[in-house]
Amino acid sequence: MDKQERKRILITGAAGFLGSHLCDRFIAEDFDVIGMDNMITGDLRNIEHLFKLPNFEFYHHDVSKFVHVPGKLNFILHFASPASPVDYLRIPIQTLKVGSLGTHNLLGLAKSKRARILVASTSEVYGDPLISPQSEEYWGNVNPVGPRGVYDEAKRFQEAITMAYHNVHGLDTRIVRIFNTYGPRMRLNDGRALPTFIAQALRGEDLTVFGDGNQTRSFCYVSDQIEGIFRLLFSDYAQPMNIGNPDELTINNMAREIISLTGNQSKIRYVPLPIDDPKQRRPDIRKARRILNWTPTVNRKEGLLQTINYYQQMPPEELKQKNF
Ligand code: NAD
Ligand code: UDP
């Protein structure tokens, strides 16, 4: 690509799990990449390998405050937000602000730069769903004032303001509804089920299953998720799109699989279920299959082994750390 034609992309939440994988992908596609993060739940080690590259820049900035980026921008990916229930319960106001004020700032930036913007929404917009699988047409079942409401409602507002900018200003927008995604670079102690279970199994501790463990989730491996987001960005589809793996299982079965794959003797310990924990979650991905020609390709065993291997490479002191 000659210098004139190079595309420039801003990725918010760049030091987090998905943001860092997106930075890698767009660097590999030969984009000029600007990563932005305020480090509230991120880890610079996720992107330190990019700092030496001439086509990567990093801005330490809170996107809930006015966002300024000099020069042209062709694309914006807005991924900044706490994403784990433990994180957003600890920092509820920052979570509401990044989904609302942060999204508003980035839509304004996209408008001024005439950039295409893709925002990271979530299966949590469906709340504790009354139908399964969840298709994009389902409006959801969210408790706005429950503890998870700070995240769910911020993301619902994010979708609403993104559609409003699309309709009123003709902004080129995309909305991805991400279902539970896992893989290397998830923070070991972010409290989400998968890193927690893997860490517990590797330490030889009991796995803490919340409730009776019969609630379900459908876990998507990170490389599949990134491919889906990539295809959505370059499609012309402006309505919300589910990206996730429909392979649904109970949390009990997920815990058992992790115990078996790590080869440890851990047991399951049942602890109380958090308030408003969704009972079931499974994406309907017919739209993604039809419009993006996308389908997940990494099976759970393969994805879990990659993820377990990532945590096994950590220094033992880090594996022992518990922040909650
Ligand atoms: P993560 O916590 O690993 O990454 C989020 C990043 O955003 C962190 O680096 C954090 O420091 C940064 N950030 C938070 N607030 C910020 C602010 N105000 N300004 C600048 N940076 C800020 O989480 P993740 O799993 O990578 O999630 C990324 C995005 O994807 C989030 O928007 C999340 O809601 C969405 N999502 C993720 C999943 C999943 O399963 N991983 C599911 C649904 C939606
Ligand atoms: N969960 C669990 N033990 C843990 C962490 C989570 O049993 O240590 C359960 C949680 O109650 C939920 C499921 O696992 O039913 C997935 O939780 P996670 O935090 O990964 O994401 P969620 O889908 O709830 O946002």
Automatic annotation (TrEMBL):
GO BP terms: D-xylose metabolic process; UDP-D-xylose biosynthetic process
Keyword annotations from UniProtKB, A to Z: Decarboxylase, Glycoprotein, Golgi apparatus, Lyase, Membrane, NAD, Signal-anchor, Transmembrane, Transmembrane helix
UniProt main location, coarse: Golgi
GO molecular function annotation: NAD+ binding; UDP-glucuronate decarboxylase activity
Cofactor(s) needed: NAD(+)
UniProt xrefs under Pfam families: GDP_Man_Dehyd
Enzyme class: lyase
Gene3D superfamilies: NAD(P)-binding Rossmann-like Domain
Leader sequence residues: none
CDD domains membership: UGD_SDR_e
UniProt pathway annotation: Nucleotide-sugar biosynthesis; UDP-alpha-D-xylose biosynthesis; UDP-alpha-D-xylose from UDP-alpha-D-glucuronate: step 1/1
One of the record's GO cellular component terms: cytoplasm
Domain NAD(P)-binding: 10-304
E.C. designation(s): 4.1.1.35
Compartments, as annotated in UniProt: Golgi apparatus, Golgi stack membrane
Family indicated by similarity: Belongs to the NAD(P)-dependent epimerase/dehydratase family. UDP-glucuronic acid decarboxylase subfamily.
The protein's name in its UniProt record: UDP-glucuronate decarboxylase
Record organism: Sphingobacterium gobiense
